[in-house]
Amino acid sequence: MTKLTSILTLAFVLTFSNAYAQKDGPISPEVKQKLSSEFKSFRDENLKLREQHQEELYQLQLKALKENHERAKKFFKELSGIEDDIEFGNKDENKKVQEKLKKKRQEFKTAMKTSRKKVKDMIEAKRKEFQESMTKRRQAFKEKIKTVKK
Predict the structure, then answer these.
(1) Tell me: the pLDDT tens digits for 47-101?
(2) 57 and 127 in contact (C-beta within 8 Å)?
(3) H helix or E strand, kind and range, residue 144
(4) Are 56 and 126 in contact (CB under 8 A)?
(5) Distance (Å, rounded) from C-alpha 115 to C-alpha 24?
(6) Number of C-alpha atoms within 13 angstroms, CB side, residue 79?
């Protein structure tokens, strides 16, 4: 008995869901052509927006990479200048110089780490913003399609 009830319920749901899905009837060829062209232009715009977004992210990464490269070159020059103070056979002074070098290396390491994290966070924020804008575009397009179908 429960199987029969399940089958009848399923048949009832399928009948009315199919009728609901086709309530508008078939789409006319003119409307279908218009929707097709709208969809193609929407996809072309999306492609351009994605390419532009990717180029923007690339430029941010490139700028950060160049800045870090210059910072590293400056750091190595500073280290070389400090290392020039090392004298053969002078252990006490050399220990002080080594401590200075260790401190400089640690400062550089933390500065680079914070710089990379800042860039990473900025890129993630831009990606999230872009995804949200694309979601809004898709929703607006769906609404536009619904109005054209009517």
Answers:
(1) 999 999 999 999 999 999 999 999 999 999 998 888 887 778 888 888 888 899 9
(2) yes
(3) helix 91-149
(4) yes
(5) 57
(6) 15
Give me 93's structure tokens.
Answer: 């002074």
Residues 100 and 75: their CA atoms lie apart, in Å, by 13
53 closest CA partner among 128, 130, 125: 130
Residue by residue, DSSP assigns 69-103 as HHHHHHHHHHHHHHHTT--TT-HHHHHHHHHHHHH
Q: How far apart are CA 126 and CA 104, in angstroms?
A: 33
Amino acid at 95: K
Q: Is 53 exposed, middle or buried (0-12, 13-18, 19+ CB in 10 A)?
A: middle
pTM > 0.70: no
| C-beta separation of 86 from 101 below 8 A | no
Q: 120: closest CA among 49, 73, 68, 70?
A: 68
